Amino acid sequence: MERIKIEKIVRAKRKTVRIDAISENSVCIYAPHNVSVQEIEKILLKHKRAIAKILSKAKVKRKFVESEKFPNTGKFYPLKIVENQTVPLIFENGTFRLSGNVKDKRKAFFEWYKARSAEIVSERVSVFSKRCGVEYRSVKITSAESRWGSCSKKGNLNFSYRIAMLPPFAIDYIVVHELCHIIEFNHSKAFYELVEKVLPDYGKSVRYLKENGYLFRL
């Protein structure tokens, strides 16, 4: 999980430590006077998975301002507002460049991620469909916020526009996961055995998505 930033520590007459989410990766700590910062950091480390769930419920509040960072294939890059740019948004030399004339900034990012996800998914589905030994009917990029992908009984594959935000190993897992549903339309032991044959270390991706998924939102 990405390092959690302690935005504020509030000391109070209390017996336990309370953790409140402020943003997608920062928290406010309410702690007794006798609990040190080092002890608080140990608590955060010990309960990082539970905290990830708390953070996942915190709505990401994007401001779309200069230097704010946005994800692209697992890494976060700064935003630069530029003038005299003919397209709404481009990614160039490790920087998201957003035209200053764009009114709906979120829509500009959504369209960029959707197009980029389509490119990535198309290539990875082509590769892994052969490895899985399956044929699919169609691939569609959706506006889904609560799930990464889905597969219909007819072999129609759907993937969230957020796919392009993720690191490559997590993208591959999501693609393989949905392709394996064409054979096993469930989450049985047999299903995960199919996934494991293609991606022996898929557990790494499962853990990553559970612990870091909240970071990849608009």
Task: Characterise this structure.
By secondary structure, the protein is of the alpha/beta class. It has three domains: 5-56, no CATH class; 69-109, no CATH class; 115-215, Zincin-like. Helix content is 37%, strand content 24%. The strands form three sheets. A four-stranded mixed beta sheet has the order 4-5-7-6. The chain has a three-stranded mixed beta sheet with strand order 1-3-2, covered by helices on one side. Helix 3 packs across helix 4 (168-180) and helix 4 packs across helix 5. The longest helix has 28 residues, at 105-132. The radius of gyration is 20 Å and the shape is flat. The two termini are 19 Å apart. The relative contact order is 0.12.
What's the short version?
With 218 residues, the protein is an alpha/beta fold. It contains six helices and ten strands; from the N terminus they run βββααββββαβββααα.
